[in-house]
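User: My collaborator sent over this chain with a note saying "see what the structure looks like." That's all I know about it. Can you take a look?
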Amino acid sequence: MSRRSLEETELRAGPEPEGGEALRERLARHPRPQREGPSIPRRRTIDLFYWSLPFFALFGVLLLIFLFHQLEAVLIRDARFRLPPPAETGEDPPTLSLAGNRRASKSAILEVFAPDFGKSLYLFPLQERRRQLLAVDWIKDARLSRRWPNRIVVEIVEREPVAFVQLNRKDAAPTFKLIDADGVLLPIPPNEKFNFPVLTGIRESDAIESRRLRVKQALALLHEIGDLNAYVSEIDVRDPGNLQVVAQVDQDVVTLKLGDKNFLSRFKDFLAQYPEMRRLRPQARYFDLRIDRRIFAAEVASYGQPQ
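Assistant: Without extra context I'll predict from the sequence alone. Here is the result:
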């Protein structure tokens, strides 16, 4: 072997360069991170998931609609939810509970619910039946509620009358009704007595707002004079700014114009001076009290008798 070949062999098999073993140990402790390959399959999975969301949502909606219709069919057809009609004996329907009705006609109330008997409670129209109940005489408000499986609870709030009202008609005798603070006309119930004054100057054709204003003025007068309203039998509210009352004083029936204020002081002043006025003018029956501390008396009806 030549010398040159021997040197090359020694060079290849010679000792490892200084630091080689430390480099391998360092690489073993801290291996070089491997480069990740492309993530194409993962992106495709995510895209497929998002594309399928609308289909899952649509399926869920259709399923809910189907279940709702199935439940609705059960509520409508199942006999357990039907409202049985009243018995032929005339007894109240077992599944209709009424409370608060004293003067309102029970037959008129039951007639409102007649279309619902034999049908499912699910089909019961709460708001429509409440609107119909408010049209029944004496009913001011009504609260209705369903009680499953087949029961209706009705709580009635009735109107409270505050006065009688005389309704004049052409070519006919006057008729009388009751009226409440809202100006609503009410029929007089039989076998019941009321100690109210009579309001005149109100017509059945008047708008409800007009009747309400007149009743409000009459109630203000009665409230102000307090115990003295025992003298008053009629109040003419035709002109709310000029109230006139018919009163019985010392067995005489007199008509007093009181205006629209100071009712108590004017009434007291009249009662204090009436004995002297009666002595001086025994035939006077019409008195104008609209000017405080002054009383004008007249004997003829044309002076201002309420019509």
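A starting point for your reply to your collaborator: The first strand starts at residue 96 and ends at 99.
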